[in-house]
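Pasting as-is:
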Amino acid sequence: MTGRYTEHDVEHYERPRRRTRPRTKERPTYDDAVDGVVVTVDRGRYTLLVGDRTVTAVKARPLGRKGVVVGDRVRVVGDVTGDPGSLARIVEVEERSTVLRRTADDDDPVERVVVANATQLVVVTALADPEPRPRLIDRALVAAFDAGLAPLLCLTKADLRDPETLLSTYSSLGVPWVVTHRDADHRIVGLDDLRDRLRGHVSVLLGHSGVGKSTLVNALVPDAGRETGVVNAVTGRGRHTSTSAVMLPMPGGGGESGVGRSEAGAGGAGAAAPRSWIVDTPGIRSFGLAHVQPEHLIEAFPDLDEMTEDCPRGCTHADDEPECGLDEALAAGTADPDRVASFRRLLAARSVTEY
């Protein structure tokens, strides 16, 4: 059978097939990209700080599903002038030094990155109005130790209740603390102590709604403009005022614009001091810890970790584990009972669902 067309018909000539463009492994170098820090994320738009300019950007397609979160150090191309209507592109996310994670629930396998490159987790809790919730404090400390962040307790509203009772619960863990309250003129007493603790850090403020996080942020960063709310007199719970995490540079915090970089990484001895940052997060009512493993948690306590070297394989170091090295150290009198009890309370907090 002859073909429909002869070799003299134009229809006979073979049409180009799809995907005939030669593939290449070469990728753009982005030599003109500039450094930036992600300060807010809102529905696919990223607000960056590039030098002293505020720039709006989107994520470049080659990044795929790679998440970009508050605190990320990124490389940016495009319009980085920060002018109204301008839009840049995030083309690279630098390696993170730390990652603060949480899950929605303890049986939720999906981890959610809260903040990247933080160095300190400030657990803010009110001593009254609303009532403190030690179980959530425990969980926040577990997340801090697991992420390698320095923990700090910030107790607010000390004019309503003595802080000593709550502080005694965490004294054996060696967690530093600051206490604040308002005086008769409604000024925040203890703010200078808190400011000293935050200096040189990228600090994430975490706590229930109504405990005073946004109030502290507004006092530390006068132009922050974070909305504050009141506590419901019936439920005793605060109303959500912060709806998204935002990262703010503290006034007078130093000249280095990098986030999460050590002094050596910023230029070694004699380099400018790291800038101080505050990350205000929305109020939380749960903090899932499905991602935290017991062997990672105990590494945050080197003195106790040494006592578990001979533990059976798979030992979680809980108080019901047979032949746990912590129990042997307690029996021998070489372990501090209060410190072991505090560690095991944090360990148990991984599975407590009520706050």
